[in-house]
Design goal:
Elements lengths: L16 H9 L8 H12 L3 E5 L2 E4 H17 L7 E5 L5 H11 L3 E4 L6 H11 L3 E5 L1 E2 L2 E2 H11 L5 E5 L6 E2 L19 E6 L9 E5 H14 L7 E4 L6 H5 L2 H8 L2 E4 L5 H11 L3 E4 L1 H10 L12 E5 L5 H4 L2 H5 L2 E8 L2 E5 L6 H6 L3 E2 L5 E5 L12 E6 L11 H7 L6 E9 L5 E6 L4 E3 L2 E3 L1 H9 L4 E11 L3 E10 L6 H10 L10 E4 L13 H15 L1
Parallel strand pairs: 1-13, 3-4, 3-5, 5-8, 8-9, 12-13, 12-14, 14-15, 15-16, 26-27
Antiparallel strand pairs: 1-2, 6-7, 10-11, 16-17, 17-18, 19-20, 20-21, 21-22, 23-24, 25-26
Helix pairs in contact: 2-3, 2-4, 3-4, 5-6, 7-9
The structure holds adenosine monophosphate (AMP) and 2,3-dihydroxy-benzoic acid.
The site of 2,3-dihydroxy-benzoic acid has 11 residues, from helix 8 and strand 16.
C-alpha cells in the first residue's frame, strides 16, 4: 500500500497487484529481503572472502556479523523502520556494514555519490525527510564534515551525522555497532528497500524507489548473465553506490554468487592496474571515459592484467571504434551494459560474437521486460527503425519518489517508463543506442546524432575523447560543436573536419565548431557531462556578447 508522505500524496507508486502477483508466480520475485539475502549468503559462503579494502579482508561470516551489530546500533540510536538515511561514502568496506545494517534495521538508505555537494545533499535530505546522514571524514581532497555542517544548518530535521574516520563535531560511525539485543524488524519484501538516484541530466537527480523483490531479481539474473561464481573477483572502480557497480552485476551480484569484491579507491589506471594484478581480478565495470583512459594507459604499464576476463562498459554509449580496441589492447572480453537506475538493464552476452558486442548495447535481462520503440506521437516504429525507448517490467519502477507531477510525463498511463533514449533493435533482439532524445542536434531540421560524429572523431589518432553538443544558432536553431580531448599533439579544427569528410560523413554532420580542451566535465559517476559542456558554450557566448 502507498505510504502517505507529508504532502498527502503517496510517496511512491507500487507495482499494480496483478503484475506483482504474476512476478511472484513465475518466480521472479522470491519474497527475500536484503537482510535475509546477506544472511543466506553468509550461511553458504561463510569462510570465503567477501570484501577486500586495502589490507582489510572480511569473510562473508564477518560481514554478516558486522552488519547485524550495525543494525542493532542503528536501532539503539533511534533509527526506526521506514526512516530515510542519506549515505555518501567512498569505496570503503564500511559501505556494506552501513547499508546492510540499515536494511536490517528496516531503514531506507538514500544512495548519494561522493561527487554530490550541498545542492544535491540538501535536496536529498529535505525531500526524503532524512533523519541521518553518513559520510567519510575526507576523500579525494574534500572534507565532507564541512559539507555536513552546511547541510545540518539547512535541514533542521536531520538529527545526526555519522562519520567514518575522524568525526570532528559529528558522531563517529565506529561507535554505532552494538551487541545484538532484541528483535530486528522484518520489512515487507514488496516495500521500498532504498532510494537510488537518476543521473539527473537536468536539475537535481530524481529519487528512485526500489523494492527488495524487484532489485534482488535483477541482481540474481545479472550474476548469472555475467557468469559470476565463487572463483570470480569483482573490482569496484566506479563509486560503489551507483546502480551499475551496485547491481549490474556489481557488488550485490558478487555477493549473490559468493565472489570476492575488491574496492578501488579511485578508477585511474595507476591505482587499478596494480590492484587487478595483486587480487587476480576477473571482472570489473567502468564508464566509457574511464575505459578510454585504461586503453591508452595499458601499453605503458607493466602490471599483469591477464586475470581479467571481462571488462564491462556502460553508463553512456561506448563508441564502436573504442569497443573494438578492448580485446586486442587489454586482453579481455568486452561486455556492453546499457542500464538505468530506474530499472531496465541490457547486457551483451558473454557468448555473443565480437561484432555484435562491438556495435550493440545488449538485450534485456528478463523475458518479462516489455520494450516499446515509438515515434514522437507514441506510435510504434517499424522494425529496425529508431524510436524512443519505453519500458515496463519486473524490476522497472512505476514512478519516482514523491514526484506525482513529474510522473505524469515520465511514465505512460499504462505504466511504461519513458527512458529518454533513442534506440533501434537488431533482428537478434539486441539494442543499439542512437543517443538521448535531448542530445540529438537539430541543425535547421537536419538531425545529427552526437554519437555518430563522435565515433568518427575517435578514429582519429590524435583524438583521445570527443563529445558533440548543440550550440544555439539564430539561423539554423542549432549548430554542432565538437569538443575534443587530444592524444599527443592537438589536432586543429580544419584537420578534423577534413578527416571526417574523408570518412564520407555528410556535410551537415561536419562539426560547425571544434573546441580542443584538456579534459571533459564529468557527472558523479564519471560520464561525460554534455549538460556542462553546453553550459560552457553558453557562458562563452554570453561573455562574447
Ligand atoms: P540514469 O537514469 O542516471 O540511471 O542513467 C541511465 C541512462 O544512461 C540511460 O537512460 C542511458 O541514457 C544512459 N546509458 C546507460 N548505459 C548506456 C550505454 N551502454 N549506452 C548508451 N547509453 C547508456
Ligand atoms: O547509467 C546507468 O545508470 C547504468 C549503466 C549500466 C545503470 O544504472 C546500470 C548499468 O545498472
Amino acid at each position: 500500500m502507498p505510504v502517505l508522505g507529508a504532502i498527502g500524496e503517496p510517496d511512491w507508486v507500487p507495482f499494480p497487484p496483478a503484475a506483482a502477483r504474476r512476478y511472484r508466480e513465475v518466480g521472479h520475485w522470491t519474497g527475500e529481503t536484503f537482510g535475509d539475502f546477506l544472511a543466506a549468503r553468509a550461511a553458504r559462503f561463510a569462510d570465503l572472502v567477501a570484501v577486500v579494502d586495502g589490507d582489510r579482508r572480511w569473510t562473508y561470516a564477518e560481514l554478516d556479523e558486522r552488519a547485524t551489530r550495525m543494525a542493532h546500533g542503528w536501532r539503539a540510536r533511534g533509527i526506526e523502520p521506514g526512516d530515510r538515511v542519506v549515505v555518501q561514502l567512498p569505496n570503503v568496506a564500511e559501505f556494506f556494514t552501513v547499508v546492510f545494517g540499515l536494511f536490517r534495521a528496516g531503514a531506507i538508505p538514500v544512495f548519494a555519490l561522493p561527487a554530490h555537494r550541498a545542492n544535491e545533499i540538501t535536496y536529498f535530505c529535505e525531500h526524503t525527510d532524512a533523519v541521518a546522514y553518513v559520510i567519510a571524514d575526507r576523500d579525494g581532497g574534500f572534507d565532507y564534515r564541512t559539507l555536513a555542517d552546511h547541510v545540518r544548518a539547512a535541514v533542521p530535521g536531520l538529527r545526526a551525522v555519522y562519520v567514518h574516520g575522524d568525526p570532528g563535531a559529528h558522531t563517529s560511525l565506529a561507535e554505532v555497532p552494538v551487541d545484538p539485543d532484541g528483535e530486528l524488524p522484518e520489512p515487507d519484501p514488496g516495500s521500498v528497500a532504498f532510494l537510488q538516484l537518476s543521473g539527473g541530466s537536468t536539475g537535481v537527480p530524481k529519487l528512485i524507489p526500489r523494492t527488495h523483490d524487484d532489485y534482488l531479481y535483477s541482481v540474481r539474473e545479472s550474476a548469472v548473465i555475467c557468469g559470476l561464481d565463487i572463483s570470480s573477483v569483482y573490482l569496484v572502480a566506479l563509486p560503489v553506490a551507483h546502480n551499475f557497480p551496485l547491481s549490474s552485476p556489481g557488488v550485490l551480484g558478487a555477493l549473490h554468487a559468493g565472489s570476492r569484491i575488491v574496492l578501488a579507491p579511485t578508477p585511474g589506471p595507476d591505482v587499478v592496474f596494480p590492484l587487478i594484478e595483486r587480487e587476480r581480478v576477473t571482472i570489473t565495470g567502468v564508464v566509457p571515459p574511464i575505459a578510454l583512459l585504461w586503453l591508452d594507459a595499458a601499453p605503458r604499464h607493466t602490471a599483469d592484467l591477464s586475470s581479467l576476463r571481462v571488462l564491462q562498459v556502460g553508463g553512456a554509449k561506448f563508441a564502436e571504434a573504442a569497443a573494438r580496441r578492448v580485446r586486442p589492447e587489454l586482453g579481455c572480453a568486452l561486455q556492453q551494459v546499457f542500464g538505468m537506475a530506474e530499472g531496465l538493464v541490457n547486457y551483451t552476452r558473454l557468448d555473443d560474437d565480437e561484432d555484435l558486442v562491438a556495435i550493440s548495447q545488449g538485450s534485456p535481462i528478463s523475458p518479462d521486460d516489455e520494450l516499446r520503440l515509438v515515434d514522437d506521437e507514441d506510435v510504434e516504429v517499424a522494425p529496425g527503425e529508431v524510436g524512443h525507448l519505453l519500458t515496463r517490467g519486473p524490476y522497472t519502477i512505476r514512478g519516482y519518489y514523491r514526484a506525482a507531477e513529474h510522473n505524469t510525463v515520465a511514465f505512460t498511463d499504462d505504466g511504461f517508463y519513458r527512458t529518454g533514449d533513442l534506440v533501434r533493435r537488431l533482428p537478434s533482439g539486441h539494442l543499439v543506442v542512437e543517443g538521448r532524445a535531448k542530445d540529438q542536434i537539430n541543425r535547421g531540421g537536419e538531425k545529427v546524432a552526437a554519437e555518430e560524429v563522435e565515433n568518427h572523431l575517435l578514429a582519429h589518432p590524435a583524438v583521445h575523447d570527443a563529445a558533440v553538443v548543440a550550440v544555439p544558432d539564430p539561423f539554423l536553431g542549432e549548430r554542432t560543436c565538437a569538443f575534443v580531448v587530444p592524444l599527443g599533439t592537438p589536432p586543429t579544427g580544419p584537420q578534423l573536419r577534413a578527416f571526417l569528410r574523408a570518412r564520407g560523413l555528410a556535410a551537415y554532420k561536419i562539426p560547425d565548431r571544434v573546441e580542443v580542451v584538456p579534459s571533459f566535465p564529468h557527472t558523479g559517476v564519471g560520464k561525460t557531462s554534455r549538460k556542462d559542456l553546453r553550459a560552457q558554450l553558453a557562458a562563452t557566448a554570453a561573455r562574447e556578447e
